[in-house]
Design brief:
The protein contains ten helices and four strands. By secondary structure, it is mainly alpha-helical.
């Protein structure tokens, strides 16, 4: 999972039901992102309405989880660089410490550094100091908006335009916050989710949602079928029994 690139425009939930203990590296990989490793069977009755609730209200938009967390980790690394240099560590030792810090927070150090042509002949530490200094200084003063948050804000402008034309008074008051913070996660209980999803306009909103299942478990298919009927969501299934 450390070396696998996955889209950040959707929630990726991995349910592990094995008996073997997982290494901390696996459990913490992608920790601060839109990817969640859950050591249990999926509770579809909770997770599916939670996903719809989070997206349609804007409170649980998956792509918002990545930029904000990256910003926080970059700020931590920027502070750590100055601390380690003050301790007199060598460049290789500093990079090793920063790599551990990034991994501890669920990121690869390389994924936090922007690739730029002008940086090709510079050392990794020099690039980090130049790129991350602005997070350490300007971000604290509130006069700098990192590019990844600026682009997330632009995504906010267009991702849910249908809310502007929504006629359902029960859903009009739910709008995504411009701060792009994640307030609702699919694996956390959201008491308002079921009623919210049930009240959504079936033609304008729920018609854009669907359930896909590839597998041979009749139990899973039966549970998804019930949810499909409850919320009027299309369900498409297939198996490997070709």
């Amino acid at each position: 999972m450390d070396h696998l690139w996955l889209n950040n425009d959707g929630w990726i939930l991995i349910f592990y039901t094995g008996k073997d203990a997982l290494s901390p590296a696996v459990e913490n990989a992608k920790l601060n992102s839109n990817i969640k490793l859950i050591k249990s069977r999926p509770n579809f009755d909770m997770i599916i309405p939670n996903i719809i609730f989070g997206i349609e209200t804007g409170k649980g938009v998956p792509e918002a989880a990545v930029p904000s967390e990256k910003l926080q980790v970059r700020e931590l690394i920027a502070k750590k660089v100055w601390e380690l240099e003050g301790e007199g560590l060598l460049e290789d030792e500093i990079i090793e410490e920063l790599t551990f810090l990034a991994h501890e927070k669920g990121f690869l150090l390389s994924s936090l550094v922007d690739e730029r042509a002008e940086d090709r002949n510079k050392s990794l530490l020099q690039v980090i100091k130049e790129q991350f200094a602005i997070y350490h200084n300007s971000a604290r003063n509130g006069n700098y908006i990192p590019p990844e948050l600026a682009s997330a804000s632009q995504n906010y402008q267009g991702l849910h335009k249908r809310h502007q034309h929504h006629n359902n008074p029960k859903t009009k008051r739910y709008q995504r916050s411009p701060s792009m913070t994640v307030q609702s996660r699919p694996w956390e209980n959201q008491p308002a989710a079921e009623d919210f999803v049930s009240a959504l306009d079936k033609k304008r909103v729920l018609n854009t949602w669907g359930l896909l299942y590839c597998g041979g478990s009749k139990s899973v298919e039966s549970k998804l079928r019930k949810i499909s009927n409850k919320y009027d969501l299309e369900l498409h299934t297939e198996t490997f029994a070709w």
